[in-house]
Design goal:
The protein has six helices and eleven strands. The chain has one domain: Vaccinia Virus protein VP39 (Rossmann fold), CATH 3.40.50.150. The strands form two sheets. A nine-stranded mixed sheet has the order 1-2-11-10-3-4-6-5-7, sandwiched between helices. The protein has a two-stranded antiparallel ribbon with strand order 8-9. The chain is globular and about 45 Å long. Helix 4 crosses helix 5. The protein is an alpha/beta fold and about 220 residues long.
């Protein structure tokens, strides 16, 4: 199985997680953001009202194109394989799935104000701590730190680094739904090793570019 990209810290595979996961060694931590089945594509973005709290119109949403990978959540068999791939797991959008009870949900407050976007996003974890909250502005063109956005469901680098820091001690990290590589970039910044899998080649290319950057993006 040939990697799409590899360096001393990161390995990227282009393909279907169903086929690649069985060939990988078990990792310390799975940190991932699988499709939720909310059809988050360009057509949906065009129909959204995008207004700030004081009703001033913001810039039009970025169009990431139309795609089909977010029409349905991943199936139970694949989720089982994802969770089995690591000792610990953090699944963003876990509230869209039938997960085991957990005492440690992560809450990301997006500081969106009043608009049609969600106020927060939730991640299910299997580690034995309390619920944790992170505030980080992420509202269309309004983003803390002006971090570049490459993917329609991208999470901020700071939020993913925070989530990794809360996990039990983990030196190896897996993201089976890598997108533009935020989990891998956060892991690399934290001096950890990471593996990512992504079925869309254009995002593999973006992720590879992010891994090659000396600047932490």
């Amino acid at each position: 199985m040939k990697p799409y990209y590899q360096d001393d810290a990161v390995t990227i595979y282009h393909g279907d997680s169903r086929e690649i996961l069985p060939a990988l060694e078990k990792m310390d931590l799975v940190m991932t953001d699988p499709p939720y089945g909310i059809n988050e594509n360009g057509a949906k973005s065009k129909t959204r009202g995008n207004f700030s709290r004081n009703s001033r119109a913001l810039a039009a949403p970025r169009n990431y194109g139309n795609f089909s990978w977010d029409k349905n959540p991943i199936d139970a068999k694949l989720m089982e394989a994802v969770l089995a791939a690591g000792k610990w797991a953090c699944v963003w959008g876990g509230n869209y799935y039938l997960m085991q009870p957990s005492s440690s949900w992560l809450i990301w407050d997006k500081e969106n104000g009043e608009n049609n976007f969600a106020d927060a996003e939730m991640a299910w974890t299997n580690w034995p701590t309390a619920v944790r909250l992170k505030r980080h502005l992420w509202n269309g063109m309004l983003r803390k730190g002006k971090e570049p956005r490459h993917h329609p469901t991208q999470k901020p680098l700071d939020v993913i680094a925070w989530a990794i820091s809360l996990a039990p001690a983990s030196e190896t990290i897996l993201d089976p739904f890598m997108g533009s590589g935020t989990t891998l970039r956060a892991a690399k910044n934290l001096k950890k090793r990471a593996v990512g899998i992504e079925q869309e080649e254009k995002y593999c290319e973006i992720a590879a570019e992010r891994m090659a950057q000396e600047v932490l993006i």
